[in-house]
Amino acid sequence: MSLEILLVVAAALFGIGVYGALSQQSFVMIMMGLEMMLNGAILAGVSLWYFSAAGSPKGQLLAIVAMAVMAVEAAIGFALVINIYRVRKADITEKVKALRG
Amino acid sequence: MTDVAAGVLALGVALFLGVYLVSVLDRFVSDLVAGHGLTANVFWAGPRRAVLLLLQQPSRTERPDAEAWAFAPALLGALGALGLATIPLAPELPLADNADGIVLFGAAMALVMVAVFLHGWSANSVFPLIGAYRFVALALSYEMPLALVLISAALPAESLSVGEIIRSQTDVWNVIRQPLGLPIYMVTVAGLAFWGPLRLPDAADLSGGTRAEVSGPALAAWEVGRSMVLVAAAAMGAAAFLGGWLGPWLPGVVWMGLKTLVLLVLIVWSGHHLARVRTERFVVVAWVVLIPLALIDVFLSGWLALAAR
Amino acid sequence: MTIGTDHAPLFADVLFWMLAVGSVLAGWRVFRADSMVRAAYWLLASFAGTAGILLLLHARFLGLILLLMMAGEMTIMAAFMVMFMMNPAGLNPMNMVHQHRTAIIAGVGAFLGLAAVGVFGEFPARPLLDASQVTADLGVELLGDSMMVFETAGVALLATMIGSIALAAHRGRFGPADEGSEPPALVPEAETVRPGDSRDEEQS
Q1: With an 8 Å Cβ cutoff, are A90 and C80 in contact?
Q2: Cβ-based contacts of B63 with chain C (< 8 Å)
Q3: Under DSSP, is residue C176 helix (H, G, I), strand (E, B) or coil?
Q4: Contact C79 B68 (CB under 8 A)
Q5: CA distance B79 to B110
Q6: pLDDT tens across C79-114, in order?
């Protein structure tokens, strides 16, 4: 286990997330792609904290902020999904072509 | 390595005794309620049922999610064992005293939601699915009060280690110092192990809910897993609020066992005496009453802990 | 580089490789599963792998909190998928993707770029030496020097709660949220029906 390998693993998780967020049609699956990217980001942040921050807790703080972002993303995302389904009966991106309500 | 082996052995014995005790208690209380005379039946009714289930033919549904269906009981049991492993049963028992024990316990108990949802979902049948949805609503409601009262218990100890939390209660137990803590915790335990008035996901009114389509060894594993979660949660209640192994004259393990037993009796008793609560009513009570009370508990405990420094 | 002092390095290495490979494989399965519940729980498995690696890196609190958070979030996700998606149980094979080629290229490109940064980048070698106080340090940092960051995250979460309830609540200040909304056209290629349009046609 070294910093390089950890960062490569984090990059793989992030890459899968990019693929998922771009390729999926369902709103919820797109959110899963976003979460996957944050998963990689958290792993990279904590690896750098462990190997090159000399134990400063600020590196862990970054991971906490990333988790808060994840919670915000999920909550707002689900609220938007409910709202757009209620108004347009749409559950995939292809059904929402106009931004006007 | 011998320390770890001794710890694992102690954990196994504690789990086995705990699950057996739950079956005895359950039968005992139900016999009392039914007005039967008390017979030796209470001691072997549980094992007999286990053997019966192990010999029974497993049932199948049309196109279940077979892997997830088999995985759910194993996950539930593993989470119960993990939860109990965070609790030092006696000062000299080595396995447990993890520096972040109470967070590990919280994480294990949060994953119970996954086990129950998978169990209900994967049968590919209506009643189990309704049971699974009930449990999601139940779990999202009890999670917050559970986490908050456990945090309050950790405040006087200034540590997340369960051992430290027990040691911080040498002068006065948390149940006296934080009167709101134990009652709220016991309500969440009933939800966590879906026992008593909160037995919603596999309730009889859903003709069995998540276990409606399960029979044979899988059902035995599920019920044992559920008892393991109950034992772990009761042991954590004894450790966090009743001073764990602390007590005069008797050895620590015995005190721990007795306190756990008291909490187990409370929960099992409630299963035969209190009516089942409707899901939506519990959700409202949890968010409107339990969470504010738990927050008050956190503030009061923090204030007291600061004043005591 | 060996980690910590309380793990045997070989044991930790084997565990790390299992967790890393498991995490990436589970992440890949998320977008290949037919059943929506399985997709959600594969993502949880991927997060569990990451949480295990965080525990190996002595970020114990972060790893456990990640697991705790994701258990709830992924169950909610699974419930949402079942509500909103056709074929949630995966009884039929399903492939709901668009711009597939672009997405693959972007994903591989992101992986290669970031991996190159990881492999060829210069990072200072200042490893964590004493792991005994990691959680306590984090707590002091959160309520000490970085309190502003922590409070900002807290206020952002509060704003999120208010915002998401405002968005999702059925009864808003201006009446029911779905007033005037209509189901979309049944033909796949038709334009999205704007609220109010089709109702007039039906009445006339």
Answers
A1: no
A2: 91
A3: strand
A4: no
A5: 9
A6: 887 777 666 676 667 677 888 888 899 999 999 999
Number of domain units in chain A:
1
Q: What letter represents residue B255's amino acid?
A: W
* Integer Cα distance of B242 and B258 in angstroms: 10
Could you say which DSSP state residue C123 is in? -
ipTM metric: 0.91
Give the angle subtended at the CA of A30 by the CAs of A28 and A36, to the nearest 5°.
105
- The CA-based angle B222-B291-B176, given to 5 degrees, is 90
**DSSP, res C172:** E
In a 13 Å sphere around the CA of A3, the CA atoms on its Cβ side amount to: 22
Please give the residue of chain C at the shortest CA–CA distance from A96.
C192
- The domain in which residue B167 lies consists of 2-308
Longest dimension (CA), chain A: 52
Cα(C183)–Cα(C169) distance, integer angstroms: 19
Span C132-186, pLDDT tens digits: 788 888 888 888 888 999 999 999 999 999 988 888 877 766 667 666 665 555 5
Q: Do chains A and B touch (3 or more CB pairs under 8 A)?
A: no
Q: Is residue A20 part of a domain?
A: yes
Q: What is the DSSP letter of B38?
A: P
d(CA C111, CA A9): 9
**CATH number assigned to the domain comprising residue A87:** 1.10.287.3510
Closest-CA residue of A relative to C32 is A20
Q: Is B179 exposed, middle or buried (0-12, 13-18, 19+ CB in 10 A)?
A: exposed
Compute how many other C-beta atoms are within 10 angstroms of the C-beta atom of residue B305.
18
Residue B2 pLDDT grade (very low, low, confident, very high; cuts 50, 70, 90)? low
Question: What is the Cα–Cα distance from C142 to C149, expressed in whole angstroms?
Answer: 8
Could you list the residue range(s) of the whole structural domain that residue C35 is in?
1-89
The shortest C-alpha distance from C100 to chain B (Å) reads 28
- Token pair, residue C110, equals 């992101």
Is there a domain that residue C34 lies in? Answer: yes
Tokens describing residue C190: 């038709």
The answer to the question of residue A72 being in a domain is yes
